Amino acid sequence: MDVSLIVSNILNPPVLAFFLGILAVLVKTDLEIPAPIPKLLSLYLLFAIGFKGGVELVKSGINQSVILTLLAAMLMACVVPVYTFFILRIKLDTYNAAAIAATYGSISAVTFITASSFLTQLGMSFDGFMVAALALMESPAIVVGLILVNVFTVDENEREFNWSEVLQEAFLNSSVFLLVGSLFMGVLTGEHGWQTLKPFTQDMFYGVLTFFLLDMGLLAARRIKDLQKTGFFLISFAILVPIFNAGISLLIAKAIGMSQGDSLLFSVLCASASYIAVPAAMRLTVPEANPSLYVSTALAVTFPFNIIVGIPLYLYGINLFWR
């Protein structure tokens, strides 16, 4: 394991901003970000991720390899929230179980970027259309999470389940709508659109992401004590589920013939948890869920685990499978 690479992965502005937010709360500063700003940052990040995914999809073109990869990505994004939901229901109510399940069905863009850097430093190639897989894995988990909430809260909350209302809420949810819509904008405008919006969608991205993670750090630190209520269960979940998901994804990657570089990115996508799209969506659509649970597990446990241990571990698995 390359320790210097691990350290450099941790020492990047978005990650440090997250820990700065935690520190600000721990030392009891008065640092606070006004409520409308995190929402605006969330919408920006969703748009930028979706648009870039659409552009990358146009660049790579559509062939059998691309189709199989994107289908596998969407399949994992749909399946992971379902099975993790029933695991989480052992200890949590429906709202929190669905929110955390959606979080782990979705992905972490920063972890993906870190893995890309890891591959670059190792001299391993990977395809640009994996960014499209990243964008496509955001929405299904949110949709599945919302459906799970509506299906399994009928008795507890005396809600009348209506498929049309559920689907409307799922597909016309502002986060999903913006992400998918921007993906199609990227597909339709291609390189011309990318160059036109580049100062907005690329140059500003890391700055906005850094500020967003500062807010996430503040939020996680203020409510991290709630993690103690389920303590060992959620912490174990946040470590074991990513490893399991990575194992499943590597089997799929091997079966459909992905390259080793693409396989690592695919496993990182499947093993990561969202702290951009899903928290933004859940805060808007499932306010009953406690953000400290799905933010804390994703940010305080799974994210550092993947950065420090997960990425090298998944590459080790690839080296074994691809011998």
UniProtKB/TrEMBL annotation:
Q: Which domain of life is it from?
A: Bacteria
Keywords of the record:
Membrane, Transmembrane, Transmembrane helix
Coiled-coil residue windows: none
Q: Pfam families from the xrefs?
A: Sbt_1 (PF05982)
Q: Transmembrane segments in this chain: where?
A: 6-27, 39-55, 67-88, 95-119, 131-154, 166-184, 204-221, 233-257, 263-281, 293-316
Q: What is this protein called?
A: Permease
- Tell me the organism: Nostoc piscinale CENA21
